[in-house]
Amino acid sequence: MSGARSWMLYGAAGHTGALIARHAQQRGHRPLLAGRNGPATAALAGDLDLPYLALALDDPAALNAALAEVDLVLNAAGPFLHTAAPLAQACLAAGVHYLDIGNELQVFGTLYDLDQRARRAGVTIIPGAGFGVVATNCLARYVSDAVGGAQHLEVAARAASARQGPGIAASVRENLPYGGWIRRAGRLHPQALGSGTITITLPGGPCRIMPFPTGDLEAAFQATGAPDITAYSPAPDDPALDPQASGTGPAGPPVYQSVGWARAAGPDGATAEAWLQTGESYAFTAAASIRAVEETLARSVPGAFSPAAAFGADFALTIPDTARIDTIPTGAPARGPLERSHLDHMPPKAMNA
User: Fold this and answer.
1) How confident is the model at residue 174 (pLDDT cuts 50, 70, 90)?
2) Which conformational region is residue 49 in: left (phi greater than 0), alpha (psi within -120 to 50 degrees), or beta?
3) Element (H or E) spanning 9, and its range?
4) For residue 215, which phi and psi values (nearest 5 degrees)?
5) Is 0.90 topped by the overall pTM?
6) What does pLDDT average to over the chain?
7) Which residues pair with 255 in a beta bridge?
8) SS3 for 333?
9) Residues 6+ apart with CB under 8 A from 88
């Protein structure tokens, strides 16, 4: 790898990629912006005064030449079913770290299977560096540690945003044909999509959630080793979803509140439950992915990891306006006495598997 500690943002011209690019520039980074859409990438690069490159993943020569100039790639180009594996494989061959912001179940298994190759190549692979996985994965590690190692683990996330980018909808459409999945006795098992709906309590009130085949099923297993895991998403017919996702601030504009949730039961029956509160989900993704880039460049450890396995359970707390709570105060906004936030966060320890 070069000594410049430079990195590439692939899919920079997309909805989420552009947000990440702007946040990176604000933090003093100068990533190489890349993607298939050359004109859009060039326009964004011009706005931010950043270097850019029109780059297609089906052009091996151009891809290898681009990777020779960077130490890390952050992939924001969904659906990741099409981009994650070829880009991660190319990164492995080039000795370049690979991160992405995806949350697609099939992709996580494929990337985690690269663990031994990544270790031999001295490369770090971390899928799921966005809101949907970071929020639940850090909570999963937290509640699992609280019960001495979870036997049963449940996780869920409810994102609140000004508008949903087209990449998420495309990813959902491409992955729905794979159906529903849960993890039991350490293995993935199919189940009817839409079955198993339950109601949980979130800081904003009750929320109906249903099992959904997200990357959390692999990431939570990688972070905790819990043999029984169910990952949930809000049920589409939950009447509380939209009203509770955001409110109105003092001056009138919407105030977005995204939430993560995890509940663990240990082998002796001990239980633990925790919530993560943050703001707009895309803003969280931009901040979390850049923090993951910074941590990986600063002290990378070879292998394939989930965010919590790489950076620890408190990694989510390094994101501004984010807090973890262990109890929801009765009749009060969810800012409990046991919460921790980025304000009292200590830097995470070195990455560990």
Assistant:
1) low
2) left
3) strand 7-10
4) -60, -15
5) no
6) 87
7) 247
8) coil
9) 98, 111, 114, 125
Residue 147: pLDDT above 60? yes
What is the CATH number assigned to the segment(s) 7-130+286-310?
A: 3.40.50.720
Give the CATH number of domain 145-280+315-344: 3.30.360
Residue 47 near residue 54 (C-beta atoms within 8 A)? no
Domain ranges of the chain: 7-130+286-310, 145-280+315-344
First to last CA, the chain: 23
Rounded to whole angstroms, the Cα distance separating 216 from 222 reads 9
Residue 296, both tokens: 């990986």
Q: Rounded CA gap, 180 and 190, in Å? A: 6
Residue 11 makes CB contacts below 8 A (sequence gap 6+) with: 17, 34, 35, 75, 76, 77, 78, 83
CA distances from 167 to 55, 143, 231, 245 (A): 18, 31, 21, 20
